[in-house]
Amino acid sequence: MTSLLGRLFAPKDDDATPLRITVYSRGGCGCCRKAKDVLEGFRAKYRIEVEEVDVDADPALRDRYGMEVPVVAVAGKVRFRGKVDPVMLGRLLRAEAPRA
User: Fold this and answer.
1) 67-89 mean pLDDT
2) Was domain 16-96 assigned CATH 3.40.30.10?
3) Among 5, 40, 41, 69, which one is most buried in terms of CB atoms within 10 A?
4) Contact (CB, 8 A) for 63 and 16
5) If we measure between CA atoms, which residue out of 75, 56, 62 comes closest to residue 18?
């Protein structure tokens, strides 16, 4: 009975807040472009909000991430550096992101 009630009152995916993903990158970076393309490939399946941050616009970020870009943070936690693994990203999104 509780599982039925849980399903009735559970938030619908339509009402779910998108999972926030931040891509720390720099202009002209081919690896950064590839990382953003991988993320775009998951938009049809998951509700994600992708924010791009140019590390060269902020000296603190440039010092922090240097040549490690792209750096991808999911829900505030850094998950990828240098390359986004689509298999690992898919597993992460299945666990944390609402469906589209």
Assistant:
1) 96
2) yes
3) 69
4) no
5) 75
Give mean pLDDT, residues 59-87. 96
List Cα–Cα distances, 32 to 4, 6, 96, in angstroms.
44, 41, 23
63 torsion bin: left (phi>0), alpha (psi -120 to 50), beta (else): alpha
> What are the φ and ψ backbone dihedral angles of 45, each rounded to 5 degrees?
-100, -30
Side by side, which strands form the sheet with 48-54? 48-54, 19-25, 71-74, 77-81
- Say how far apart CA 78 and CA 90 lie, in whole Å: 15
Average pLDDT over residues 54-59: 96
Mean pLDDT along residues 33-40:
96
DSSP letter at 48 equals E
Task: Give the start-to-end residue ranges of the domains of the chain.
Answer: 16-96
Mean pLDDT of the 40-55 span: 96
| Mean pLDDT, range 8-29, rounded to an integer | 80
What is the pTM for the complete model shown?
Answer: 0.82
